[in-house]
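Run log, item B.
One chain of 413 residues. Sequence copied directly from the ordering sheet:
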Amino acid sequence: MKKVLAIVIIIIILSAIGFVAWLFIGEKTPGEKIEMVKNFLPFGGDVNLPPPPLITQLPPEGNGGNGTEGPIIKGQKLYQLTQNAITGATFKESQSFYDLDGKIRYVEKSTGHIYEIKPDGSEQSNRISNTTILKSFEVIWSFDANNLIVRYLKDENNKEVVKNFLLNLTEQGAETATSSSLGIFIPPTIREISSSPLENKFFYLIKSGNEATGIVSSFEDNKHDQTFFIPFSEFDVFWPSRNTITFLSKPSYITDGFLYLLNLKTKSFDKILGNIKGLTYLYAPSGEKIIYSKSEVKNFSTFIYDVKTDLTDSFNLKILPEKCVWDRKTTDVIYCAVSRNIPFANYPDDWYQSLVNFSDSIWKVNITTGTTEKIHDIEPNDLDIINLFLSPNNDFLFFTNKKDLTLWSLKLK
């Protein structure tokens, strides 16, 4: 009996050795080997074997139409998020415990399709809208990034007219109807639109002769909350804080510029700055400071104005204020795109018309202490930076390259 048992054990051992030798010498793929071992074990039981080696396939160069847009890493912290031009972008905070970074939502200029992508582009972009809107030139996003107004040009009777289309997006990204299956049109006579930084509301101007009507409306149902009568009509509008909307006369080096402030609580309409040629500005969310520039002969100068004290000082860097963004956490820090050289030109007109361009670096400025710090040189990339915005925690800075309207991100932390 002992001899029989010994023979059986020897046969089992030899069989096992032969199987292992065949397994590793045979022409099976790693995945096939693991599956065969699992089948060989009793009940096909699980086994903690190492997984087969991964074969990483880089996504093809996307045209923005199929969600294959991915990052082009330009430096340790700089990412090109899109290869195609965009019309507008915003930050969408995550509602998921498994996605703490949030997403960037943007509208592709050529199609009007809406996409999402991670701040560092570590995943492919995801298309969340099937709506096609050609010739878009401006996008106004709601505070929660679930609503947007797309402004675009449409050919009617042999001329181009402006259309304003309001879209509502669900949390999952699918479109929902407001009054139709895609969205609603809001008045085509709207001249300017700006959205609230803290609520899902937007403000727009409708021209009426030499005057204008200003209306506060809701993104969700387009109901009017407030109506104001403005004594002038040619303004750029911006909504920097909860109860403040600013009005800037159209900037040009040949005309005096004026900046007004509308207080939504008191309904007062007051002049803040005036008689400044080529006036452009950036109003602090705190309401205490204004960065502004004025035209010089083939040049410009930059200043900081204290609203409370009515005092003006030179700004630490030579910049156009629309190339800056205020810090999301503190009131005394600002991030700016500063050009390595300033071409001789009529500012801001020539820059608006792309007759001159800048090659920018990113700087951080503390307006209280006066300290400046270059945080990224951007080189060797040649970027003319506009439309800057920060993630809620100030860990990413996002911007558009004016030269080709591509979307970029810079990791700050």
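Observations after the first pass:
- Residues 22-68, 172-181 have pLDDT under 50 and may be disordered.
- The helical segments are 2-25, 30-40, 349-352.
Flagged for discussion on Thursday.
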